[in-house]
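This entry is set out below.
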Amino acid sequence: MISAILLAAGQSKRMVDENKLLKKYKGLPLIKHSIQNILNSSIDELIIVLGHQKEVIKKNIETNKKIKFLYNPNFKNGIASSIKVGLSNLNKDTEAFFICLGDMPNVSKDIYNKLIKEKFKNKDKEIYVPFYEGKQANPILFSISMRQKLQEIEGDIGARKIIADNEEKVSKLTIKEKGIIIDFNKIDDFEF
């Protein structure tokens, strides 16, 4: 089973009184693009970790049997707290899981599927990282064996340190789609 943890708990601090996940992009709230791309891939479970404005965000997401909503009461403590909430609620049959960002609407289903395919092809690795023009990108796919190490991260740091500390376990996959390095944080980003 392949799971995806979608981080959607942030406060959109750089957006001036607007929640970036609800701001329209190509006619839909930003988060809907991220969710649709994940659901259209071959994942089996999507865990959406909410925090800031949880009820409003949840109302903007259609129900789907693959989706499980979770609330991170410590969302103000940074991204690590949301990752941990997701990790603690993975299905018992999960073999691997993505950590995905709600503000990356241009990560296509094909990118998720390429990383899943890489996992089954390259079983001696435990972390599957996409790269665009040599730059580390998102989403990242982890084997379930990495769960404990990820549960030890703190603050507003994602998995970057885990990847750096476990270089020998990393499979790097070159992806030619720029969407894997573009996140939306400011008003200007929505003009992309």
